[in-house]
Amino acid sequence: MIRGLYTAAAGMVTQQRRHDTATQNIANLNTTGYKQVDSVSHAFPDVLISAISHGTSEKIGRLNTGVFAEQSISQYVQGDLLESGKPADFAISSDLQVADPATGENIQFDGSGKYINPDGEVIYRPQAFFTVQDNEGNNLYTRNGSFTVNTAGDVLSAGGFRVLDATGNPMVLTGSLDNLKVDGQGNLIDPATGLAAGPKLGISIVTRPQQLVRDGNGVFHAEEPEVAEVRYAEAADNMQVRQGYLENSNVDAAQVTVDMNAAYRAYEANQKVIQFYDSTLQKAVTEIGRV
């Protein structure tokens, strides 16, 4: 009976975390570059129950010991691009491909940007990010291209981080912001000649985006860049920088609303199970205990 209390309590904690994740997604429906978070739940290991009588053991069956929220996974699929018309606003449009080692053909990813090969290995679509740097010199990655330029010409992200160029150095602009022109590869263009003349936006390609860690404020970091296979974008990469656009959140409002309501109902169901066990224990103490 006590085990049942623990199982129901574990279910309540898991559903609370699912509900919190869904409300976080809903709160960021209009946050530029926000990536939806999905909560993944797993069951604790089953327990084999046996009855021992007169020195013999008879298997009764398996008992599930509850569930727990194992991890939260970010969905990096691209959000809609919305035109802002501001010269310092940028969005990345990308369709990066990965070749299947077995066939040599491009992998066909599903709508969530992942592919499961015949061996059960999950492969995620590579993603492109703007590269920014915090005050400690750590590289961070974001899809929020709403940049500003201070009086010294430093290009800053929405979170106040310095935007890096393709050589890993902070970008500094010398001309008027009104004349800022950037081509599809992120090169700064001289308005007079129409040719590349200046630093190039530092677009990082993360081959294994599942290795990124969410930091908040729309940025991610890679604890081990070598494992995440982070590199700067090359001309052959199928991606384009769109000036005067911003990437909207990729949250599926209908789906996260369904998830939130499902988590709430499951939380209520576990709560009623605990109330049942509580009333049963109360009877055991107050009534059976008097006999």
From TrEMBL:
Keywords on record: Cell projection, Cilium, Flagellum
GO cellular component, one term: bacterial-type flagellum
Biological-process GO terms, alphabetical: bacterial-type flagellum-dependent swarming motility
Domain Flagellar basal-body/hook protein C-terminal: start-end pairs: 242-285
Key word Glycoprotein present: no
Pfam families documented for this protein: Flg_bb_rod (PF00460), Flg_bbr_C (PF06429), LlgE_F_G_D1 (PF22692)
All residue ranges annotated as the Flagellar basal body rod protein N-terminal domain in the record: 5-35
InterPro entries, A to Z: Flag_bb_rod_N, Flg_bb/hook_C_dom, FlgE/F/G-like, LlgE_F_G-like_D1
Domain (Flagellar hook protein FlgE/F/G-like D1): residue spans on this chain: 128-187
PANTHER family membership: FLAGELLAR BASAL-BODY ROD PROTEIN FLGG, FLAGELLAR PROTEIN
Family classification: Belongs to the flagella basal body rod proteins family.
Protein name (record): Flagellar basal body rod protein
Source taxonomy: Bacteria, Bacillati, Bacillota, Bacilli, Bacillales
